[in-house]
Amino acid sequence: MSAFVEAPPPLLNASRFRAAHAEDWQRLESLLTRIEKRSVGALADDDLLALPLLYRSTLSSLSVARETSLDRAMVAYLEQLCARAYFQIYGVSDSAWRDLGRFFTHGWPGSVARLWRETLVMAFLTVAGTLAAYALVRSDPAWFYGIIPEGLAGGRDPGASAEALRETMYGSKEDGLAVFAGFLFGHNAQIAIFAFALGFAFVVPTALLILYNGLTLGAMIAVFADKGLGPQFGAWLAIHGTTELFAIMISGAAGMRIGTAIAFPGRQQRMIAIVAAGRTAAVAVAGVVLMLAVAAILEGIGRQVVTSDMLRSGIGAAMLAGWLLYFYGFGRRLDVRSRG
């Protein structure tokens, strides 16, 4: 009786194995080096999503290399690579202060910079709504009451006298303007929140909300301009409005990024596209809360301390220039560097 001895499986060819997986190993090593030199904020959204997948793939390669007794140099390289990846993915996080610092130096400006196209769309809608409402109210003041809610107007309507309107901008004591300003801040905060949240509904509600915000602005400008107070109102608005309106536009841009990822995921799977868009949008909107708080402080200063039109306009222009430099100078450079 003849015995059949099963032949041992052929040994895995080390060169072929390396060629088949080297691209993933090299990409993982490149991402880890970038994190170690800078921070995890230096990675683009696609790289962040790929990092755990590359780690698991390399871990699987290490297991195969050990089982099939591939050369020691390869095993040692994969062990070191997996250890570095494990530390970055599952290691102990930095202190809260360091995380906060990275948010302001990398996360927030980089996220807003990546939303520049959507922010331009929101700026266009705001300007278009402002011009349309201004033209309508100047041609027929009755349009004002169809655009501005009574609570938001606070008596600042076409029927108000020039003296009453002027008093709202230059009253140095706590008066009716404080109530109006508080209502206006709450209104704009709600606009910002809803502009972001409604982006999930395929962008359309977000676009309409930003357009309506522009309509309210244009209608209010028309009321003051009709009484010869257009430049004065513009100066009063500028000191806090450049920050507040910019914050609303960023919120709308974040909502638009999510909505377009849902509707048009491109070559990516829809869920992967939504996750990547949501990460960028969430970081940007987290900073919007701070911008609205800064706008509230500036509004209080402009109402009670700074009454010079030129100084109000100068502060507003300086704030706008600062935000633009922070987001599209510093932030844009970080975004390009992280993708390089």
User: Cα-atom Rg, whole angstroms?
Assistant: 28 Å
Element string (H = helix, E = strand)? HHHHHHHHHHHHH
Helix amount: over 70%
How much strand?
Answer: under 5%
The rough form would be described as elongated
Mean pLDDT: 85
Tally the helices: 13
**Main beta-sheet strand count, sense and barrel state:** none
Q: In angstroms, what separates the terminal alpha carbons?
A: 68 Å
Show unreliable segments. Answer: 1-11
How many individual β-strands? 0
Secondary-structure class: mainly alpha
Task: Describe the SSE topology.
Blueprint (H helix, E strand, L loop, with lengths): L13 H24 L7 H23 L4 H19 L5 H19 L1 H24 L2 H6 L2 H4 L8 H9 L5 H22 L6 H23 L3 H34 L6 H35 L4 H31 L1
Helix pairs in contact: 1-2, 1-3, 2-3, 4-12, 4-13, 5-10, 5-11, 9-10, 9-11, 9-12, 10-11, 11-12, 11-13
Kindly describe this structure.
The chain contains 13 helices and no strands. The chain has helices at 14-37, 45-67, 72-90, 96-114, 116-139, 142-147, 150-153, 162-170, 176-197, 204-226, 230-263, 270-304, 309-339. Helix 5 crosses helix 10. The termini are far apart. Mean pLDDT is 85; it is low at 1-11.
Describe this structure in a few short sentences.
The protein is an all-alpha fold and 340 residues long. It has helices at 14-37, 45-67, 72-90, 96-114, 116-139, 142-147, 150-153, 162-170, 176-197, 204-226, 230-263, 270-304, 309-339.
Could you list some keywords that capture this structure?
about 350 residues; mainly alpha; elongated; about 80% helix; 13 helices; disordered N terminus
